[in-house]
Every structure is written in structure tokens, then in C-alpha cells.
Write a structure and sequence with these properties.
CATH topology: TIM Barrel
CATH class: Alpha Beta
Radius of gyration: 20 Å
Shape: globular
Strand content: 15-25%
Order of helices and strands: EHEHEHEEEHHEHHEHHEHEEH
Keywords: Amino-acid biosynthesis, Histidine biosynthesis, Hydrolase
CATH architecture: Alpha-Beta Barrel
Number of helices: 11
Family: Belongs to the PHP hydrolase family. HisK subfamily.
GO cellular component, one term: cytoplasm
Pathway: Amino-acid biosynthesis; L-histidine biosynthesis; L-histidine from 5-phospho-alpha-D-ribose 1-diphosphate: step 8/9
Catalytic activity: L-histidinol phosphate + H2O = L-histidinol + phosphate
Number of domains: 1
Structural class: alpha/beta
Distance between the termini: 22 Å
Length: about 350
């Protein structure tokens, strides 16, 4: 039973994604997906949260469009969920943002207030308030911001006294500290691209365990938090199409997670039809090389009148409670066998 737990569309993620959401769902059905989570990015709240691509022609207009677009996405996702129910099991979620801790209450409100939202992907795309996966220039800007904040807090050195290696180490430490705050606050059941910080790194394949032991301690701490509340790590194959040699998370982190008894879910993090199931076979090979035998997804169990759930939501006399989510284990062999992929489509 093939699936993805993380996807985007050009319809609701304009600028860096492509294609209409319904066309993406139909393509997923054609290639054998039995479950698909629709998880567009959540809206952001201030002008400083905008990416460079959103600044032209009007930053305020871009910001004002985010919440209406989010609500339109939820409406369309529900329509597709019903229309294609006999062909694919659609889950509805959104990908969280954590540029600063103030986003915690906002994320919880977005989740609680909309009964159709099944889960939230806990992701970080920022450190020290600066995007770390947009381009190399912004990654270096984030490193400088993290170094400046560290120097101000420690009062022991100037950020200019740090080498480039030390500056980047400070950025990684900041990333995992902010991730810890997000995990502790939200306890997201799906943790997206856990080590996204390595995408723009000067050495994405570095062995953090020996080079930066303080960073490794933070990584193990964060994994322990996730394991403690029963969350899943996403094995995200988008790292492969972006030029990395291993999916998120890399081998050292994945091995540590397995030692903890942690569970993996699986995602392409697609941004359009061309990226659905991209590098899925390589991702499955990677997991098998680690000794992983199964992946995890959800099955929605709609709420029936007279039943109760743990996530009641306010309504005007209508049933606005969330569906229950059953955890479903999918053997890797079954997942692989269900894919209908032609040529080298998954190796793009």
C-alpha cells in the first residue's frame, strides 16, 4: 500500500510548486497510491515571514492572501477526499512553520479550529528567524544571525571571532534547539525532514557525532522527545532529488532512531506531479539497508453521532469533531509491490 504523508501543489503553494491539487491526486491514484496526505504550508502572520519570491509586487498583498488560501485549500481537500474516496484514502493536514516560538499557539488554533485537519507536520524551515533551505545566501545569513545571537548571549566572544566552521556549528545547534522547542510545544505526530539543516551545508555528509558532539547531543535529545510522546520520523525522499546522497534523516540519525525503537513514515514532499513518488525506490532501498521492515500511516475513522473524541471543536449545533486516526503498519515489500512506476520516473 503505497502512500505519501507530505505533499504540496502549485494551486495552494504558488511560487515554488506546480499543478492543480486534483491533478496531483489523480496522478497519485494512477501510480498506485492508496493513501495520500494533502499538507500545504500553513499561513504565516507577518511581513518578516515572507520569502523573497513573495515580496513582488506587493508584500502586504502576499501576506493577506495566505489565510484565505489556507481555508480554500481545506475546502478543496475535503471535496477531493469525498470525490475520490473509492480510489484513494485522503488525509488532510498542513505543514507547520516555526520561525519563532509565537507560532505555537497559532498552529494549535489552526489545528483545533478546523475539524477536517487530521494532523500537523512538525517542520522547521528557519533558524535564528532566517530561512535555512531557500538558498545558500540565506543559509549563510542564518549562520551569521545564529553566531551573533550566541555571542550576545555568552558575552564571551565577538561573532567575527568565529571561524566559518564554528559559525555553521552554532547554526546547527540553534536549529536543533528551536526544533526542541517546537517538539516540546506541539508534540507533532509526524516530524518532517528532521535534518533539513544539512541541505545547504558546506558538508552535508559530515559525521556530526565526531565533529560536533554538542550538536549530536541535541539531535539525540530531540529524538528522545519524539520517541517519548510516540511521534514518527518522516523518511523524506526530497533530499535525494535536491542532490543529497541520503534521504532525511541521514544514516546516523536514522540508526539512532531505530535503536530507540522509533517508527518511520514515508514522504516524497512533492511540489507537483513530476515529483510524486520521486526516488521512492531509492528511499525504500535505503530503509531496507537499515533493517527497517515497515512504514506507518493513518486510516481515518469518521466520527459518528453519539461518539466522543479527544479533540472536540466548537460548532453551531453541528458535529464538528475530528475523525479518529488509526495507526496502520505497511510492510516495505507490500509498499514496493503496490507502486506502478514506469521507466526511471522515481529516480529523477
Amino acid at each position: 500500500m503505497a502512500f505519501t504523508m507530505h505533499s504540496h501543489s502549485g494551486q495552494f503553494c504558488p511560487g515554488h510548486a506546480k499543478d492543480q491539487l486534483e491533478d496531483i491526486v489523480r496522478h497519485a491514484i494512477r501510480i498506485g497510491f492508496k493513501t495520500m496526505a494533502l499538507t500545504e504550508h500553513m499561513p504565516r502572520t507577518e511581513l518578516i515571514d515572507l520569502y523573497p519570491e513573495e515580496m513582488d509586487p506587493s508584500p502586504q498583498a502576499s501576506l493577506d492572501a495566505l489565510m484565505p488560501r489556507h481555508l480554500a485549500f481545506l475546502s478543496e481537500a475535503q471535496r477531493l477526499q469525498e470525490k475520490y474516496a473509492s480510489q484513494i484514502h485522503i488525509l488532510i493536514g498542513f505543514e507547520g512553520e516555526w520561525p519563532r516560538p509565537e507560532f505555537g499557539p497559532f498552529i494549535r488554533e489552526l489545528y483545533i479550529s478546523e475539524p477536517c485537519v487530521d494532523f500537523v507536520i512538525g517542520s522547521l524551515h528557519h533558524a535564528a528567524g532566517v530561512p535555512i533551505d531557500f538558498d545558500k545566501a540565506m543559509y549563510l545569513q542564518a549562520a551569521r544571525a545564529a553566531a551573533a545571537a550566541f555571542s550576545e548571549k555568552s558575552s564571551s566572544s565577538s561573532p567575527d571571532a568565529l571561524s566559518k566552521e564554528e559559525e555553521e556549528e552554532t547554526l546547527w545547534n540553534r536549529y536543533y534547539d528551536e526544533q526542541f522547542d517546537m517538539l516540546s510545544s506541539l508534540r507533532p505526530v509526524v516530524v518532517g525532514h528532521f535534518d533539513l539543516i544539512r541541505l545547504m551545508s558546506g558538508d552535508p555528509a559530515r559525521d556530526v557525532r565526531t565533529q560536533w558532539p554538542g550538536t549530536w547531543e541535541r539531535i539525540v535529545r530531540n529524538l528522545g522527545v519524539i520517541r517519548g510522546y510516540g511521534g514518527w520520523l518522516e523518511c523524506n525522499t526530497s533530499a535525494l532529488r535536491k542532490g543529497l546522497t541520503e534521504p532525511y534523516p541521514g544514516r546516523a540519525i536514522a540508526t539512532e532512531w531505530i535503536k530507540m525503537g522509533g517508527k518511520f513514515t514515508f514522504s516524497d514532499d512533492s511540489h507537483g506531479i513530476a515529483q510524486v513518488a520521486t526516488n521512492y525506490l531509492r528511499g525504500l532501498d535505503y530503509l531496507e539497508s537499515l533493517g527497517v521492515t515497515e512504514l506507518w500511516t493513518f486510516r481515518r475513522r469518521p466520527v459518528h453521532p453519539g461518539t466522543t473524541t479527544t479533540t472536540p471543536t466548537p460548532g453551531d449545533g453541528e458535529d464538528r469533531r475530528k475523525a479518529e486516526l488509526d495507526e496502520v503498519a505497511v510492510p516495505l515489500a507490500e509498499f514496493r509491490a503496490s507502486l506502478r512506476l514506469g521507466g526511471d520516473a522515481v529516480q529523477m
